[in-house]
Amino acid sequence: MRIGRLGEFGLIDRIARRLSHRRQGVVIGPGDDCAVVQYDKRRYQLLTCDMLIEDVDFTKRHDPMLVGRKALAVSVSDIAACSGVPAHAVVSVGLPATTTVRYVDKLIAGMNRVCREFNISVVGGDISKSEKLIIDVCMTGYVEKNRLVVRSGARKGDLLLVTGPLGGSRKRRQFMFTPRVKEARYLTQRPGVHAMIDISDGLIQDLRHILRQSNAGAFLFEQLIPVSSDARGLSGALYDGEDFELLVAVERRLAAKVLKLRPRDYFLIGEITDAAHGLTIIDKKNREHVLRPGGYRHF
Amino acid sequence: MRIGRLGEFGLIDRIARRLSHRRQGVVIGPGDDCAVVQYDKRRYQLLTCDMLIEDVDFTKRHDPMLVGRKALAVSVSDIAACSGVPAHAVVSVGLPATTTVRYVDKLIAGMNRVCREFNISVVGGDISKSEKLIIDVCMTGYVEKNRLVVRSGARKGDLLLVTGPLGGSRKRRQFMFTPRVKEARYLTQRPGVHAMIDISDGLIQDLRHILRQSNAGAFLFEQLIPVSSDARGLSGALYDGEDFELLVAVERRLAAKVLKLRPRDYFLIGEITDAAHGLTIIDKKNREHVLRPGGYRHF
Questions:
Q1: How far is B237 from chain A (nearest CA, A)?
Q2: What is the DSSP letter of B195?
Q3: What is chain A's percent helix, strand, coil content, to nearest 5?
């Protein structure tokens, strides 16, 4: 049987079940935005890795500065989704022998931008010969134990917020997005943030991860969803990937407070229900529709 | 200018110089077997990553169990080379859509073997579509501050030891080697271990890394070099890669003690000199020859 029959998420589930991860000190193993391990009395360490491959995630025509920037930024976004602060990274690079030194210099310059912005150090790496350009970044971060947010904590009645307009990012914003570290950290200053994920595979697909791992359902308000000017309408906002905005399930009172204090940074889009409700959207005429599955999948 | 003109190590130097790694808490940045960052009062954290690519490091005909095993074992070997103990890993995998579930299961089984042997947990990862199979492992480990060994501490008069026979491992042993965690930990129970590296690119090339980073020279005794039965004679032992034995510069008194107590685990092969001496080998007739450069390079 080929892996295509399992699908990307079936494959991830299967691997996660089979992997040996019984060591002491593992708080969250495979299957969330980051792995979480014990660090010190006050904090956990976060670990995440993300691989970009030429002709899958970018092409030779893309500015290498932006490719290098994105390679680190996607990992920063994963750290943000757990409410953490990034710290160190190691980078494995596969390079065709024909790559120019100028190209590599630009890749590095793009990485350095993210490092400066978020106070990250690239402390090591590995270089290998490869037919296609490959960049795999592994990043560590830290989060206070009482501020860790994972995918599995959403509760009935929580409000769903996103940190920015959605859709159409495949064109341009996928290389230019700002990882939402500040926005996540602002939210978790107070208790009441129950679940969080960064939107990399599309709003609906990533919301489904939260719902499945929280054993919950949700409804969205069509009129409230912030649609990016790059998106082809609502469908783009729901199903396009690589927005790298955060999707957050927040206790109602805290959500109301945040929406009032920071109306430009957080957008109300829906509400968590019990699992039996499934996932629906309420249109402008107040009719409720079941949302079809969809979003980006590798297989 | 293409990267081939810089060569692999020229390229690594250039990248290491340009990378931003000024964050507090970085003890050793790019250019050693592992990166070293502050952890707690007593210990440092080690970080390393290693990428295996189909048709560069292995082919489809190799048993996927052995490929999975090697993917983790090379990182364990890097942790060992800093005298550390491995802890957690995250794994990025690029897979062709035609890969079978059976193949992936075997890869995982190979990884689990290493996890069980060294008490490592694979805590997360990333899966991507790819034309060639790619496995990149990032591993963390810990080492007591007074037991950290890097490449740069070799001193004139130190003896050079290796942990096993060398050469010919491209055939078979590259997939079957045991990372030398125990051997490194045994050595660093006492002070006097000045520099260490794992032999991945060939004895001579990896010794040159120690010599350059320690500003030292060395001579080897041809008669003492343990040549693997798989190697094509001395040349294989000197220049073949992927032995994953440790090469260690040890203060004389400690070296003598270790060689007496554990004659099967450590082999004396030479001595550290000042840099002006260069790198030579003393043959069976007591004639000294300058060693030509050589070993495995990606570019």
A1: 23
A2: E
A3: 35, 30, 35
d(CA A192, CA B93): 35
pLDDT 10s digits, B117-165: 999 999 999 999 999 999 999 999 999 999 999 999 999 999 999 999 9
CB A49 within 8 A of CB B126: yes
Residue B231, CA distances (Å) to B172, B220, B235 in order: 11, 18, 8
Residues within 8 A of B (CB atoms), A 82-121 only: 87-88, 90-95, 97-102, 104-105, 108-109, 111-112, 115-116, 119-121
pLDDT in tens, A246-297: 999 999 999 999 999 999 999 999 999 999 999 999 999 999 999 988 777 7
Q: Is A90 left (phi over 0), alpha (psi -120 to 50) or beta?
A: beta
CB contact, 8 Å: B12 with chain A?
yes
Helices and strands in chain B, H and E counts: 8, 13
Q: What is d(CA A71, CA A115) in angstroms, rounded to the nearest whole number? A: 11
Chain B residues near residue A241 by CB distance under 8 angstroms: none
Q: In b/e form, how buried is each residue of B62-88, taking b as 16+ CB within 10 angstroms?
A: eebbbbbbbbbbbbbbbbbbbbbbbbb
H or E, element range at A202 = none
Q: Rounded distance, CA A220 to CA A161, Å?
A: 10
Q: Is this prediction's pTM over 0.90?
A: yes
